[in-house]
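Hi V.,

You were right to ask for the full record rather than a summary. Here it is.
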Amino acid sequence: MNSLEYKELRSIKAAFDVKKQQYQRLQNDIAALSDLLATYPRQISVQQEKINAEQAAIYDGSVSSPKVLAAREAQLAALHEGLARLEEEQRLKQLELDQKQSAVVCLKEEMMEQYQSFHRVKELYQAAQADRDSRLAGLAEKKAMLLQEIDPKTLAWYESLREKFNGTPVARLDEQHVCSGCHTIVTPIAYKRALLGKPANCEKCGRVLFVDEN
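Predicted structure:
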């Protein structure tokens, strides 16, 4: 899980999830806008019918009073303004819908690229994982062979102290006489004994010391 491939997979998935949420929001917005736009033709038709009726009332000669005529003409102007407002709202909503539909197309293309990238990296991750598994299997076989060469009493001692020493009761000494377990410098005598293959322990952490001459 600490591999670069795994981290990249998590990064791609996180970015994909963000775009997926954006896509869902856009789809919801598009559905709402489509429903709203579907109501405009009827509203505009009703408004046009009112305009036609008002025009007919004004021009059929039945209105003789200048005051009534002025009121009907003002009403007709208001109806025209209402119609213009409805048509402008429809135009703006259609423009918003077109923009969101274009955004969805772009978003789908980006999501497809991320999807393809995810699968490419996934193949690399699976190949790397297979290689790690193969190497671990080889190490397990090597470990099993080495365990057969260790004296059972020594192995029992080692296993009994693994937990106490956080996984390893032995420590390697470098050329500066530093214990790899606790990172302190051991005494020259302890280093000399470890170098000669004799029993030697770190005076601070208690681990058995050895010197890797290779």
